[in-house]
Amino acid sequence: MKMNFCRIMRLMALRYRDQEAIVNIERNRRFTYGQYHLLTNRIADALRTTLQVGKGDKFMLVLDNDNLSLMMFPSTFKQEGTVVMTNRRDPLEEHARQIELVKPKVVFLETLLLDSYYDTLRSHGCSIVLMDPPSAEQAARPGVHSFWSLVEAASELDHELELDTDEHICMLRFTGGTTGKGKCAMYSIDNWMACRDAAFINTDMAIDSNTRLLHVSPLTHGSLMLFFPTFYAGGTNLTMNQLDMENWRLEVERERVTHSFLVPTVLYRLLELQRANPRDFSSLTTLIYGAAPMSPDKLGELITCFGQIFVQGYAATETPMTVALLGKTAHQPDATGSLQHLSSAGRPTAGVEVFIAAPDGKPLPLGETGEIRIRCKAVIKGYYGNPEATAAEFDDGAWKSGDLGYIDAAGYLYIVDRLKDMIISGGFNVYAVEVEAALAAHPQVLMAAVV
Q: Model pTM?
């Protein structure tokens, strides 16, 4: 199916014209839906015209959250190039490896990184776009452009570009590389539309036009999956660039934030801060956590402190949507008084096929532990430039997650370990996550890690 995203965004701008779409806290920028539509039109036009990015070309982002918010899908879906997401915190050596693989035509760069990155980027033939106004000396360097100068010179008019939502590779993004160098995942537009739809199917996420979602985790990673539904609901995406919990607490209070995404270790720290010096979190209705296991005991303490506002999501780079969700109502004892399901990843999202496989790929019965495999519209197109890894990790349309888990009789999905991290001791399987949970249950233990 083909779609024109200028038309889509124009209709959204008419519907939500004066509502805030983007708030950049550190840079003190605010854009309404009407302003954001015109701004992203200009960014897309600059990519097509001045920067000459066309079909098959790549442009890479090495940016903080504030600037990433300007380069999200409204910009990237309005032109034919493929955006390459990177982790701003990775070292230059890792970015150089990624550049060598994808060969971007243009790199959008934080201005303060120019001196250290210039020679590497120019040696690979990359044009450089600096996001904050450069000095006269920086602007004089060959191949360097000023983002805001490009934007001011570009057209804000809608255009007639139509993209195939299944075939067009709109984004490349690197995996975390927990078992080696990160692989480069390829995404279609439909992958991200599935991400959007999963948030609306899971109504406990409570994303609507009143949502004010504060992104402090990198928008290139898990937090990105919340940008799409918040935008399509007419809500506000707020960004912070640095994880400072005192600043986070201040902004939640000041900006009347309703939603945010935090990893468990950060939530443990937040619990200690709120106990010591409470702030007004009355606006906060939904705290989404994931990316690592949560100690059930610590989760109970968090609920006691903050209330029934927690939602856990299970997702991955290869399936950028809420594959499973432990909703707010599930964060309490079941009908028998059991809290066991608090250690689960929740129940699979309606419409997503999750099954537990034996080493030969055959499905296992309920309650048996094996590899979690997933089929859904969010499963990526494979790994860029790596057909061997694509063949190894995808089977008959299913992604082989590498997570060991099981599904119980109530439909809860449990993740017990990474397949490669399982410890065999005395002939028995030992799962690090279970040992960590036992350690964290002790009142004197704030967090634990088993290696």
A: 0.90
